[in-house]
Amino acid sequence: MLDPRPVLYVIGLLVAILGATMVFPMAADLIDGRGHWPAFLMSGVFTVLVGGIVALSTANAVREGLTIQQTFLLTTLVWVALPLFGALPFMLGETELGFTDAMFEAMSGLTTTGSTVLSGLDTLPSGLLLWRGILQWLGGIGIVVVAMAFLPELRVGGMQLFRAEAFDTMGKILPRAREIAGQIFVIYVALTGSCLMVYIVLGMGFFDALVHSMTTVSTGGFANYDASFGAFSGAPEYAASFFMILAALPFVRYVQLINGHSQPLLRDSQVHVFLAVVGVLVVITSGVLLYIFPHHWEQAFREALFNITSIISGTGYASVDYMQWGGFLITLFFFIGLIGGCAGSTACSVKIFRYQLLFASVRTQLQRIQSPHGVFVPRYQGRPVGPDILNSVMVFFVFFVVTLGLLSWALSLTGLDFVTAVSGAATAIANVGPGLGDRIGPAGNFGGLNDAAKWILTVGMLIGRLELMAVYVLFTVQFWRA
Question: Would the pTM count as exceeding 0.85?
């Protein structure tokens, strides 16, 4: 029988840590002088107390490792529990959001989706803006650790391909996991700090630079202004594009790099394909913009680079309303959001390596048709790929498409039009941020949707961030019987 106490212990600790971080937005509100700091004081004390009580009451059941069942349960419940408590400042603060809107905003933050129900961001207290940035920053580092530590062990969507490059979180190898997790944290902080300094040098105020550096490196996309990143046109767009690309690369390569091994990063085919895809898409988009609009070539290139990078990495910033760019680019942007970055990064969506494996499998099948007696094996980075990995990837694609269809259908039942329903479902499951259309496009937000639609999207963000199968397995009889 599954013992939930080790799971509750970890969740309790993480909830308490989340509550402790509320001291930073509380301090920001005190400095701001607008009197909104009590919302964070009350939320923080309550969150720390609940998390601490849960952790202390289950500490006697902690073992050195977790079973597979417990790890599946922990992976999902963490992303349910943290948004519940992360929503408190939105309910108690100036926004006074209802539970539905507050939960949507917190889930969007911690899953680094970047969709928002808030308008008038330019006038919100500093504490709430900082809290949105902190949620995304914590969600970004959290998903990197999950992608490196848990998903390869849980064999989710082909992630077992990276088991040799990740680290084991089960049993006696836990100290090694802690060591590498510590290195990931140092790298993550260093990237954030570097982004902060670059933004300041390029003219951002300290507070804007701080929040946007957190939401850039986490590829989250929450901004301090209704105009999103359009408030910082010019050189900051190039800087943001650079750091979004860095955040979308596999963090395991950075760990290897700081340990003196640069070749894995330079030879990683996933990195090569991702950069090539970004380059091709930027060239195509720049060309279309120059053809349709009287853009200067630099402006066309900059807007194409920034917005393509933002969408493909799942960040979700917008520097312009690209709904005005014409049908071809709007359609292109929809499909770009379904690509994603590299495995083991803060980026969202399907991920580049799955497309590589899909094309490798298709190529192998075509070779077998042409030469029925030949022996052809799909390969990834020169290594043969076993049928278990290919099956996992194919199952992921099937469930991704089915989930997209079901979410779109469910949203349409709430009264949304076709474009809003389909793009809303896609942006939720791919954790991209803005959808398409006037309501949820780059110039709008999700505040005008009804509560049913918001809950559907909230569930979609959770499922998509945990790569589908880690959530769906909890609803099988076999899981609970194991």
Answer: yes
